[in-house]
Structures are given as C-alpha cells and as structure tokens.
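User: Working on a comparison across species. This one is UBC core domain-containing protein from Acanthoscelides obtectus. Can you predict its structure so I can line it up against the others?
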Amino acid sequence: MSLENKYNLKSPGVKRLMREAFELASPTEEFHACPLDDNLFEWHFTVRGPPSTEFDGGCYHGRILLPSQYPMQPPNIILLTPNGRFEVNKKICLSISGHHPESWQPSWSIRTALLALIAFMPTPAAGTIGSLDYTPEERQHLAKKSKTWECQICGRIADKLAWAGSDGSGHKLTEEETSLIKQIALKAEEDANKSEARPTTSNEQPSEDLEDGNIEIRQRITITAAHSSVSTSLPNTDALLTASINRSNKDQLWTAVIWIIISIIILLVIRRIFLL
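Assistant: Here's the predicted structure for UBC core domain-containing protein from Acanthoscelides obtectus:
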C-alpha cells in the first residue's frame, strides 16, 4: 500500500511530511533522508561528518521518529553508526529533539534537525543525555570505519550521499539555517563552559590514574549521592514509622475504653431490667 493510500492526506502533519519527503528526495553532500516505505513517521537518514573536525570524512546513519503532532512537536533522533559523540540506538539530547520540546519551533523541519545534528557533532559533550566523550583519535578511527557501515534497510550508507560535482552537491544553506547552526554551536559551547565552571567538591578529588580518572570520579559521585540519598531518607522513614506506631497504640487504647464503656452500659441496662 502506498503512503498516499495509507494516510489521511488532509492531516496537516501528513501534508507536511509528504512535502518534506518530496523536497529531500535528492541527496546532498551533507545529508540524505527519506521515510520508510511503510511508515511516514519513521525516517532513515545519513549525514556526512563536518569538515575540518575529527568526524571529517565519516558517514553516519540514524533514525528519525516523528510524533503524530509533528510539526507542532519535535522529532526524536537516534544514531545507529558508532561515532564517538553520541550513543547508538538511544534518543540523543539536542535543542531541536524531543528532549527539549520547549525550544522547538514548528517552522523547523527534518532538514533543520539534520543540519543541527551536524553542527552539534564537534561540540563538547557537556554531560547531556546520549553523549559520549571519545578522544579525537578514536573518533577519527570510527569516521574511517563508518564508510563501510551498512544499514539492514538502506544498505551501504556511504552511497546515499551526493559527492562533489554531482547534481545534489551545490545546495546552499539559507541565512536562517546558517544563523540557527551558529546559535546551536554557541549554546553548546555555553553549556560546556557551565559544566566546566561547576565547583569541585571534596568527593571529586582527581584520580592518580589519568586514564581511568573520569570513570572513578563518576563512580564516587554516584555512590556518594546514592549514600547521601539513603542516609537522608532513613531518619524520615524512622520518624514516619514511629508516628504510625504511636497512632496505632492510641487507636487501640481508645477502642478498649469505648468497649469498656459499652460493656458497663449493657450491664447497667440488664441489671435494671431484672430488678424491675
């Protein structure tokens, strides 16, 4: 069944996606995206790593999951190709993804999301959801390996992009897209600076082993935070338990008093009846 027969063409979201599918049908040097044959709300995409970075020359494939309320709500982006910047098979956190619906604008599109993803790749991870902090050498190695990566649905991803001199290679960015990419890069840099400026506590002493230092620090922070949370919750739990026991004891006492009073009244009534 074709997409035209499967979906309500009067739906604004369907109309928008059909139009975007038509506009993105021809691949460019930077990216290519298209919906699955049987699902207009799931797209597969391929982007080329930004030049003059550790991702230069790499080809990265992924999925775009679009909500039924698109374009009023943002898409979710999942990368499938190992890249050293984002975790694979996990929704990544971008200002134009489902993790930040408050910053999404309906005028943005799948093309905008892909350009933003490319712009985000060389920025610091800054501890965001789905981020990885590999070394430049590791990322360069993954960029080389990505050229031979294949998707079970789309095939060899390197063949999906246009190359210099081809018909799709001359597509230029609009002023709005260029401005958006600059804003994204600036925001990512600000987030990284904020992350680095956070004060170091006594629980965050650097490890002597530089190679495993970050891992050990993260483990100590996690364990300390968990221990603090447990120890904070214990007094509250004890207090609640004590209060509950006290209330139970009081209830039992009042119940006993009431039964005694009722018993006395019954005895008095019986005595009066027999005396009459």
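For your comparison, note: Confidence is low (pLDDT under 50) at residues 199-238.

User: Helpful, thanks.
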